[in-house]
Amino acid sequence: xxxxxxxxxxxxxxxxxxxxxxxxxxxxxxxxxxxxxxxxxxxxxxxxxxxxxxxxxxxxxxxxxxxxxxxxxxxxxxxxxxxxxxxxxxxxxxxxxxxxxxxxxxxxxxxxxxxxxxxxxxxxxxxxxxxxxxxxxxxxxxxxxxxxxxxxxxxxxxxxxxxxxxxxxxxxxxxxxxxxxxxxxxxxxxxxxxxxxxxxxxxxxxxxxxxxxxxxxxxxxxxxxxxxxxxxxxxxxxxxxxxxxxxxxxxxxxxxxxxxxxxxxxxxxxxxxxxxxxxxxxxxxxxxxxxxxxxxxxxxxxxxxxxxxxxxxxxxxxxxxxxxxxxxxxxxxxxxxxxxxxxxxxxxxxxxxxxxxxxxxxxxxxxxxxxxxxxxxxxxxxxxxxxxxxxxxxxxxxxxxxxxxxxxxxxxxxxxxxxxxxxxxxxxxxxxxxxxxxxxxxxxxxxxxxxxxxxxxxxxxxxxxxxxxxxxxxxxxxxxxxxxxxxxxxxxxxxxxxxxxxxxxxxxxx
Length: 510
Ligand code: C2E
Ligand code: CA
Ligand code: CA
Hints:
- By secondary structure, the chain is of the alpha/beta class.
- It has helices at residues 18-31, 75-89, 99-116, 130-137, 139-156, 182-200, 229-245, 256-275, 318-324, 327-345, 362-366, 370-378, 401-414, 445-450, 455-470, 483-492; strands at residues 33-41, 47-58, 64-73, 120-127, 162-167, 170-175, 204-206, 209-211, 215-222, 251-253, 281-290, 295-306, 310-312, 355-359, 388-393, 417-423, 440-443, 474-477, 496-497.
- α5 (139-156) packs antiparallel against α6 (182-200) and α10 runs parallel beside α12 (370-378).
């Protein structure tokens, strides 16, 4: 009698939105009924899942006079569905993913890494001497220990990573999105593995004793569909055995070159953090030559004078600096250094008009204080901003073009020039060219290198020079190594040239 005279609103849980009810009514209108699962509310206020059927009752004329609704509580069925799912995909002891779910995730990782061109890694982990401990502890305590290990494993990785139990004391971790460079990926995977070993080796307290465990980890870094799930597992497993063979409590990569890469990568990263303070950076200068053979200016190229590794080329540390964000202070250092150089040129009529180009990477340019930092440093000097040219690449134009253009314009207003570096290798459309405050196109060295043998490269070089003339931009060719190349470029009307033929990057004498 409590519900007599009431509307169904008294059992409404409030968990469905208006759109849901609109759909329900739409179906009832069209089909004369609806059935499905809804959340309803008990008298106590508790929400429960119900299987609900609504039917329109019509009179002889076909007009709806009533709606009849029946429902049943499906809480128990829902629970058992969940339990079945749990049993099918999860390890009952630890609640980690089981082998089947892991294989599913690996297959998905193949596809997504092929799309994103980002590396993944599989970590095979086996506890050291667990069997012995299990025998002395008894299986019940052994199980407790495995549960604690599982918990720590989960806490050592990100939410998106899959942690699975393979059975016994073997665990597998799938790491995704480790970066687009194999060296970064190896380092990142190693970093996670170290974190895992650290966490696992903390003492475990069981009843009244403490236990200590270590583990051995094998890593296989992968991308795309190059190997099958079985191969991937087998290789990680092999690497794990390698770690065991080399004394346990260790990490080994399946591919030894990955091991080296990871080690080198983290070494460089650590050293890079102190390189500015320790004054290990230097700029080398490479001349840019006019058609008349006069030095127009220089490009400043960064070198890292490492105390034990010697001179390190930018290609070996700039990507790391970009990834770690260290490119921001490093880039700022380059700019200030370049300004100081141009300032010192002002004292002499011979050098006073030299233009100095510096490279600015996309990550640096996108930093929100880039323009302010640059202008702030520039304010300390008193030479015309036009003596500094910023070389940027097309990758800068790949996203958020409007912000990029606004920043370029802001700097251009002060007087700084922009050159588009490595031109011809990008894949963006040419239409942006006329909207950018550019003053120079820099033909990528790969075209210059092959232009004498490869007619297609020659055609590209010629096209860029023509394009530059049409858009009233200067064109410079880089990587000019021979007299023949220089002669052809000059004949084609290329404004400036740069390359080993004219001079290698080196410290300045003046
Ligand atoms: P990039 O801007 O395209 O620089 C030209 C590269 O070609 C330089 O390599 C230069 O040494 C080299 N090169 C010059 N002439 C010739 C030649 O005739 N033949 C050949 N085969 N190579 C030639 P480097 O110095 O190793 O620099 C590599 C890249 O590192 C640069 O490419 C630039 O993208 C980046 N980089 C260098 N310095 C900086 C910097 O201060 N900041 C940033 N963000 N990137 C920099
Ligand atoms: Ca450059
Ligand atoms: Ca270049």
